[in-house]
Specification:
- α4 runs antiparallel to α8.
- The protein is built from eight helices and five strands; from the N terminus they run ααααββααβαββα.
- Strands 2-1-5-4-3 form a five-stranded antiparallel beta sheet.
- 55% of the residues lie in helices and 12% in strands.
- By secondary structure, it is α+β, with helices and mostly antiparallel strands.
């Protein structure tokens, strides 16, 4: 406290008193202080003033920078705890699904392959992501959507448009089915798949519409602002082979991830993007890609059973 008070005193002296004293130097009688000496004193005071102004300004800038970093670190820690809680919820959900199966009198392991419904579990993981995004952005759940689609590339003759399936995210008001939506040239799905985009982030998805990279559905049109969108490609792979691939799409309606008007949570859209890509998505990516592997193994087994013996 004493150190800060001292700094404020020094700042007041060199920001106010010194500049005020400079004109007074020239009022000193020449017989006391000649013209040359007056200029030397003024120059000396000016140099001292500039030195302390720059020194104090640099210290304040450094303090502000460190304060911002400390705030950001605290924010990251808080969000990391929220992510950890949601990931823990995912583990509890899976445990609950497996426990439910133990109540069945007979369980055909050969037929079911998995001890739980991976589709339902993946849907619940998406619900956890949706709730997490709501928590960290303070956007109500009703304005957030999480869509998740997947396919087995080796099962579609390398046609990138065939055999995509929903896990979750199909809007009740949507007039097109998934195949029609993917094949629609101006849809977001078409944009991602045709360009093989791994990650995408747009704080204002309205900017994608003129470029024909996003098709505004009925839910979009109900709001003045289109909102934000981010896509993340996730795959179950082994060496150079992709057995199951998917897209997780987080979208908002009427509200943006970051808003200049309401920016109490994040300082910029870049900050939110960094947190989304570095803290939120990675742990859920591991969960989802594991489930894609389970889905593929179940799919492979069932395909083998269909073949004539």
């Amino acid at each position: 406290m004493k150190s800060e008070t001292k700094k404020q005193y020094i700042k007041s002296i060199f920001f106010t008193i010194c500049p005020f004293m400079i004109p007074l130097i020239f009022m000193v009688p020449i017989n006391i202080l000649n013209k040359a000496s007056q200029y030397i004193v003024v120059l000396l005071l000016l140099v001292i003033d500039i030195y302390f102004v720059l020194k104090i300004s640099r210290e304040e800038a450094l303090l502000l920078y460190n304060s911002k970093n400390a705030i950001f670190d605290n924010k990251k820690y808080s969000i990391s705890q929220s992510v950890l809680n949601r990931v823990s919820n995912c583990e509890r959900i899976k445990g609950g699904f497996i426990k439910d199966e133990t109540y069945k009198v007979h369980y055909d392991y050969n037929d079911n392959i998995l001890l739980y419904n991976s589709h339902r579990y993946s849907e619940r993981v998406c619900d956890e992501i949706k709730s997490l995004i709501s928590d960290i952005t303070k956007i109500e759940l009703e304005y957030i959507s999480v869509s998740f689609i997947y396919k087995y590339p080796h099962n579609s003759n390398d046609n990138i448009w065939d055999e995509w399936n929903w896990i979750t995210g199909k809007e009740p008001t949507m007039s097109l089915n998934l195949t029609e939506l993917i094949n629609k040239p101006d849809s977001y799905y078409h944009y991602l798949i045709s360009n093989d985009i791994s990650t995408s982030f747009d704080n204002d998805k309205g900017k994608l519409i003129p470029e024909r990279h996003y098709w505004a559905e009925e839910r979009d049109k109900r709001h003045k602002e289109y909102g934000s969108i981010s896509a993340h490609k996730m795959s179950f792979r082994n060496n150079n082979s992709t057995f199951c691939t998917s897209y997780l799409i987080i979208s908002t309606y009427g509200k943006k991830f970051y808003s200049e008007i309401d920016n109490d949570v994040f300082s910029s859209e870049k900050e939110f993007e960094q947190i989304l890509f570095d803290l939120v998505i990675p742990p859920f990516r591991k969960i989802i890609e594991t489930e894609l592997g389970f889905l593929y193994m179940r799919h492979k087994y069932r395909e083998e059973k269909k073949k004539p013996q």
